[in-house]
Amino acid sequence: MTAFDDLMAHQRDTEALAGISGRLGWDQETMMPRGAAEQRGEEMAAIEGVLHARRTDPRVGDWLDAIDPSGLDAVAKAKLRHIRRDFERNSKVPAKLAAELARVTSVSQGKWAEARAAEDFAAFAPVLERVVGLKREEASALAGNGDLYDAMLDDYEPGATGAGLETLFSALRPRLVALREAVLGADHQPAQIEGSFEEAAQLQLAREMAQAFGYDFNRGRIDKAVHPFCSGSGADVRITTRTALTDPFSCVYSTIHETGHACYEQGIDPDFALTPLGQGVSLGVHESQSRIFENQLGRSRAFTGHLFDRMTALYGDLGIADADAFYGTVNRVAPGYIRTEADEVHYNLHILMRFDLERALISGGLEVADLPDAWNARFQKDFGVVVDKPSNGCLQDVHWSVGLFGYFPTYTLGNVYAGCLLKAMQTAVPDLDAQLAVGDTTAATGWLRENLQRFGGLREPRDTIAHACGFEPSEEPLLEYLEAKFRGIYGI
Amino acid sequence: MTAFDDLMAHQRDTEALAGISGRLGWDQETMMPRGAAEQRGEEMAAIEGVLHARRTDPRVGDWLDAIDPSGLDAVAKAKLRHIRRDFERNSKVPAKLAAELARVTSVSQGKWAEARAAEDFAAFAPVLERVVGLKREEASALAGNGDLYDAMLDDYEPGATGAGLETLFSALRPRLVALREAVLGADHQPAQIEGSFEEAAQLQLAREMAQAFGYDFNRGRIDKAVHPFCSGSGADVRITTRTALTDPFSCVYSTIHETGHACYEQGIDPDFALTPLGQGVSLGVHESQSRIFENQLGRSRAFTGHLFDRMTALYGDLGIADADAFYGTVNRVAPGYIRTEADEVHYNLHILMRFDLERALISGGLEVADLPDAWNARFQKDFGVVVDKPSNGCLQDVHWSVGLFGYFPTYTLGNVYAGCLLKAMQTAVPDLDAQLAVGDTTAATGWLRENLQRFGGLREPRDTIAHACGFEPSEEPLLEYLEAKFRGIYGI
């Protein structure tokens, strides 16, 4: 056994144990009896302890030092790059700080939920201050003299920087705001869907859509959960969905979204299983897959024509004139407080304000106590609406309560990447719309698997997109796509 | 922190990780997608590796040596007893042998399933020889100069010996054979149930029965699986069941059986959670709980009267005259090849022959090649029937293929213990039958929880039964119960 072999054998078990931890997370959200929460907490702490010990095992450092990379191929080098980055990251954070962060964030999520239910930001402010303080400490340990926010970003999107995202987002914002105003001011406004749609039919349609987008049920399953998510990698990638009685699109599109995440994981080269290359490479690239499935493909005029037929067959008359009107209904733009319910035009505006606010929180330019005012002022400026209560404002998302700073921008990065990927896909699959119109996504999802998904963690995130597209990613394709689509729907 | 505290903290995480391993086993049998089997194998190997390392960690030996037990209470001493036994056991088996056993038994189960399907014992014989050889090696490492079979028993029923069981079983056999012959020769024979019973109703009744027997759904759940089982401990104890279209009793009684196992785990003192006292103390004691739920309570004249009402309400006319006839139908005695389908009179005869055969295999008095002949001869002698094919004979059970020698006798030990517990319970709960007749098991299951279940692993297995009963366990109560019950039903 060489040092490389020893390191890979060690890593293989670490990956398997991390997979177990993920599976427990799935169980917790889908199957676990209510009364088991405390016991599960102990189990999660135990396996996280094992994982931390393995990831900071001094032998990992010794093996990394002992390996001569000169004779290694690109795959081996990529594995080492991931392991080295994780080892250095995990080793830099003092165990005491890591434990304190785990302790505080396990409590703070509950405090956030209580404060949100009580519409009482003041009750949440002290714990959020504590979380911000600890995350700043952690980022200092990681960044050395570097930027704190960049160190946080590195957890979710290696290679991304606050400055780079600021440039990108500054290019997006004015055109999104202009599009939003044009659309909302248009004479023609699509109808909303009305009626009541029984759960069994919604779940049947969700399974059909997952299948249509290439989800492999032999290596996964769909269950109901409070929040839709995707969990697992390799041969066991499970998704969840939810239903809303009066909104049949919620179940359909959250399922197609999670199918995008799942197909990325299922599409990775099986040779990468139980190595650091065996998962999606970053949150931004992951989100590009879920978003292109959900929006660029799933909400296209072509595919919604197919969906209109399927839903009419399932539910009878939908009260919508034809497939063109249905396309408008599916893509209806409406201002709203809640990010997770936002349409394609508004969604990134939600992210852009969170990015600016969280950077200010981390830099110290914004105090936690001033967050509601800052949020509400910015929301009014970008959305033209006054926030009516904290649960519709800065208490709506769980992320900050559990220390996820630097996470939000990956959602918009995913949308930007999805825009680039659609452009490249349209060139590679000239009759894409004709295929989608009959519900056939084989060429589209096959192109993504062949050019992006199968490579897993082989390349850095941005390079993963550039390799698939054949050009450097930028915001332009997303903006062109959004402007063309929504100007078309709204006749402007 | 004292050595005792350090040891308990170490043990706590080990117990939590063992709980995770068990939960993965549950997932594998109920939820896991088919295509994930190989990946799950890697995950199980990884966590078993972690558990083995923790259980044989030299620090455990150091802590055990450093602890002065003189000032400790009974609970602390019991914890140390379990930890010491496991540490010594795990440390005695060479890692190479343990790995080889794991490897061989992971393959041999598949070979057994193939051989059973093909009715080809010769195809299975070589791998069974290998398993027997490795188990003998393992037992030698454990037993030193002691008896090999006793060392194997120790895994499942600490304190039991082959000689002690032989004495017990010798007392059972003639009276069971005599009862069997009397019953089968009786003029009156109960009717079989006929008809088709839809799955949804069977599952509804199963849930109702689990509830009636005190299963806490807040700390558990019921799912379908190929084989009924109970999994987990403390606040997360899950059971599975199965349905058979033409046999509604299979689902009802396998559910009540697993509810017995589950209520034992759910009934243990919460203070024992994540300690070695936090699980049922042995397989025999565990089986006493499942059997007394299923048979002594669930198949009693009193409770079957309630069940008759419930099943009539659910399915309509069952084609059975009245509750007395129904009691006979539920308890119908019929010779059959298959242990898992056996009635109360035949069941222990199945176990007694397996006990003698496996002891002979381990002692070397019986060669694997001669097993089918030995099995068939013994079956004809005890059951009066010629075995027609290996799947109805020595290939019917999975146990030996995976190295479970010393496991079978715990089933009959459980029945013997259940007989003792019923006798004690009848004294403690004078109006037991009146309660069961209206489906109220509260006093019965409460008596078991109070006098046995809550103590978990505090006492040795036999002492656990003796403490609950107030007398030393013996075969007599079980035999008296069986003779009275079946002579009554068959009018002999």
UniProtKB/TrEMBL annotation, chains A, B:
Entry keywords, A to Z: Carboxypeptidase, Hydrolase, Metal-binding, Metalloprotease, Protease
Main enzyme class: hydrolase
InterPro entries, A to Z: Peptidase_M32_Taq
Top-level lineage group: Bacteria
GO MF term list: carboxypeptidase activity
EC number: 3.4.17.19
Gene3D superfamilies named among the record's database cross-references: 1.10.1370.30
CDD domains given in the database record: M32_Taq
The UniProt record lists the keyword GTP-binding: no
Coiled coil (residue ranges): none
Reactions mediated catalytically: Release of a C-terminal amino acid with broad specificity, except for -Pro
Task performed by this protein: Broad specificity carboxypetidase that releases amino acids sequentially from the C-terminus, including neutral, aromatic, polar and basic residues.
Family listed: Belongs to the peptidase M32 family.
Name listed for the protein in its UniProt record: Metal-dependent carboxypeptidase
Taxonomy of the source species: Bacteria, Pseudomonadati, Pseudomonadota, Alphaproteobacteria, Rhodobacterales
